[in-house]
Amino acid sequence: QVQLVESGGGLVQAGGSLSLSCAISPRSFRWLAMAWFRQSPGKEREYVAQISRYGNSAVADFVEGRFTISKNNAENTVYLQMDNLKVEDTAVYYCAAREIGQNEYQYWGQGTQVTISS
């Protein structure tokens, strides 16, 4: 059974930084791409960033220059480094995995809360 476990959320002041991690199990799971999404109360879930197994990455325009996605294939872990955080970045952040041969992100973590205070 594929499991994604996020960690690293918390409370930080605006302008601060947080680093999220997403550990994927089992180690044998062959993921093609991993992504981070977020959802704030009353808002739709939105895409934040994605990275392929081979290193190609992208981030949403609203986090460009502030957020960085990276991975460690050996550890089967994906990271989201968030710098210069803004109050509007407050949300539950979810990681998601797309398996090789699939077109959608079919595996999701439980989410981790990120709260930015002014």
Characterization of this structure:
Helix content is 0%, strand content 55%. With 118 residues, it is an all-beta fold. It is globular and about 40 Å long. The protein starts with a strand and ends with a strand. The relative contact order is 0.32. The mean pLDDT is 95.
Distinctive features:
118 residues; mainly beta; seven-stranded mixed β-sheet; four-stranded antiparallel β-sheet; 11 strands; 0% helix; globular
Structural class: mainly beta
Q: Low-confidence stretches at least 5 residues in length (pLDDT < 50)? A: none
User: Rough shape?
Assistant: globular
H/E series, N to C?
EEEEEEEEEEE
What's the layout of helices and strands?
Elements: E1 3-7, E2 10-13, E3 18-25, E4 31-39, E5 46-52, E6 57-59, E7 67-72, E8 77-82, E9 91-99, E10 107-108, E11 112-117
Parallel strand pairs: 2-11
Antiparallel strand pairs: 1-3, 3-8, 4-5, 4-9, 5-6, 7-8, 9-10, 9-11
Summarize the structure.
The chain is mainly beta.
